[in-house]
Amino acid sequence: MTPLHALVAEYLAHLRIERGLSPNTLGAYARDLARYEAHLSGLGITDLDRASEGDVTAFVRAIRTGADGGRPLASSSAGRLVTSVRGLHRFALREGRVAQDVAAGVSPPAAPRPLPHALDHAQVTALLGSVPAGPDPVALRDRALLELLYGTGARISEAVGLAVDDLDLDGRSVTVLGKGSKVRVLPLGRYASEALERWIVRGRPVLAERGRGTPRVFLNTLGRPLSRQSAWAILQRAAERAGIDHVSPHTLRHTFATHLLEGGADVRVVQELLGHASVTTTQIYTHVTIDALRETWAMSHPRAR
C-alpha cells in the first residue's frame, strides 16, 4: 500500500466516522479519489506531499476531456470531483501529512453559460398575430402585453407592475421600475403604442368596472391587477396557437435584445434598455449575433467551405 492510498483510506474513514456521511456519499467520494489516485500514480506520484498545483490542474483538465482514460465529465460532475480532491488535500494538511495545500487555489470548472434562446422574426410575427383580432377586452389586453414585452424588452414583473400614469402614449414611451428600484424610460414603437392605446381606451375600462379600482395597466377578468403567473399563461396560450415551443416571458426579452444587436444597435444602448448593471451581462447576446453572422458567412463566402 502506497502512502497515497493509505491517506485516501484514512480520509474516507474520517468522513464515515467523524463526518457521518451516508454510504452513497462515501461511495461517491471513494470513486472520485480513486480516479485522482490513479491520475497521480500515472505521474509516478505515490505520496500526496509530492503533488503540485499543476498536477491537480492537469487532473481537472483530464476529467473534463477523458484524457485520463475515464469518462469525460460535465462541469457539474467535475465540480463535485474537484471538491473531493480539495477535501483530501485539506485533510492531509490538517493532519500534518503535507507541507502545503496545493489544491486550495484550484477552482471547480465553471458551468458553461447557456446562450439565450431567441425567436426569429417570423416566429415573433406568428406569436403576436395569434391573438384574436376584434373588440374583445381580453384579446386587446393580451396583444398589448405581448407587444410591450417584445417592443421594450421589459421584464414580466416590470410589465405587470406598470401603472397607467407610467405610460406616455403621446410621447411613445413607458417608465418602468426595474431591479434594485432603478427607474428607466423605454421608447415605444408604433405597434406597441397603438396596441396599448386600444387596450387603455377600449378594453381596460370594461374589465376595470368589475374591480374595485386599481392604477395598474394590465387587469385580469375580475378587474384586479394581472399577476406574473397570469401573464405567463397569456404568453403560453399565444405560443401554442402560433405553434412555437419553449417560449417564456424571458424569451421575448432575449429576442428583443438579439434583434436589436442584429439590426446594428450598440451593445451599451441595449444594456441601458434592458436595465443591466454591467455590460458584461448584455454581451452574452453578442455571441448569438456572431453565430448568425458566421452561419451567413459559411453559406455565402466562396472560401467558407
Write the layout of secondary structure elements.
Layout: H1 3-17, H2 23-42, H3 53-65, H4 75-94, H5 121-129, H6 137-152, H7 156-160, E1 167-168, E2 173-177, E3 183-187, H8 190-208, H9 228-242, H10 249-262, H11 267-274, H12 279-282, H13 284-300
Helix pairs in contact: 1-2, 2-4, 3-4, 5-9, 6-8, 6-10, 10-13
Helix/sheet category: mainly alpha
What amount of the residues lies in strands? under 5%
Mean pLDDT: 89
Largest sheet: 3 strands, antiparallel
Find the count of extended strands (DSSP E, 2+ residues). 3
Outline the structure in words.
By secondary structure, the chain is mainly α. The chain has helices at residues 3-17, 23-42, 53-65, 75-94, 121-129, 137-152, 156-160, 190-208, 228-242, 249-262, 267-274, 279-282, 284-300, and strands at residues 167-168, 173-177, 183-187. The protein has two domains: 3-94, DNA polymerase, domain 1; 121-299, Orthogonal Bundle (hpI Integrase, Chain A). The protein has a three-stranded antiparallel beta sheet, with no helix packed on it. Helix 1 (3-17) runs antiparallel to helix 2, helix 3 (53-65) packs antiparallel against helix 4 (75-94) and helix 6 packs antiparallel against helix 8. The chain is elongated, with a radius of gyration of 28 Å. The N and C termini lie far apart (56 Å). The mean pLDDT is 89.
